Amino acid sequence: MTKKQILALIISACVFSCAINQSHRSERAVKLNFSKCIVSSEAFKYLIIQMPKGYSKKFIENEGVCEYRFAFKDGAIAYVSSDVWYGSSLNFENRHSIGHESYNKKALLDTIVLKDIQANNKYWSEQIIGNIMVGYVNASEDKRALFEKAFSSIKKFD
Hints:
It is built from three helices and nine strands; from the N terminus they run H-E-E-E-E-E-H-E-E-E-H-E. The protein has helices spanning 3-23, 92-97, 141-152, and strands at residues 27-33, 46-52, 55-62, 65-72, 77-81, 111-117, 123-129, 132-139, 155-157. The longest helix has 21 residues, at 3-23.
């Protein structure tokens, strides 16, 4: 074998290995557009989140407040919202069950986390991270960990 053939073989193996690794990733980067949404204070146009694969995405806009929902076949739903004052309607009953109606943020750097177990023994959470709201409902233990990982991956862009 010549040096060129060996080099071509090594490059082919690397390309094949990278392609296999990319297709086996359990999450994908999703760009969410918030450019036409009401966002408290620190404006950003979009964000990128590494969301677990296997969802259907839905966009909801109500009077300038925007929410992206990611519904999974097992019934779990994760969301990212610009409504840091009232949260998602998905967690309305869960918030009220622990005596929480709305949020009173003091500063843009506040991080507020609510979480508990639903009546169906699935997990729910709602978190304010700076000027966005993230959360989930109907999550299994495994899905809960995936959602928490996804939320920690969020990056905002102008």
